[in-house]
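Recap slide: Gem-associated protein 2 isoform X1, sequence and predicted structure.
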Amino acid sequence: MPKTEDEDGWKRFCFGENVCLEIQLKEEDGVNPGLDYVKTGFPPFLSIVSKLSQSTVSAVLEYLINWFEERDFVPQLGRWLYALLACLEKPLLPEAHSLIRQLARRCSAVRANLESKDDDRLSALNLMICIVARYFEQNDLADKE
């Protein structure tokens, strides 16, 4: 695993070279990418995230949220954000409050620009907003009933 302060290393670790370097897979590459985690990124296995300290969880969360501010939502991002949010211990530090609020606002902005209610990203974006708003008690960011 990358060191806590290695932002680019964490991005490559979580997303893989294909996403980080914005490499478009050819159709024949996508048939069976196998378990080449260097290219596809490591999934947030429990054996990985359970070893992360709270400071590392916050740092990686910050790296991924900053990456999300500049790019589109991808499935690997959703899996990692969910796992890191599950690892955050309450009560949150002020920096963590700010990060998760930034995440919910970005998810809301991306959701507002989706062209269809059938978009694959919609449920993941809704889940991120709901976790931040309900579990972490940021009720002003919750969807109105």
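Helices lie at 7-20, 27-30, 37-40, 46-49, 54-70, 75-87, 94-112, 122-135.
The two ends are 42 Å apart (CA to CA).
(End of recap.)
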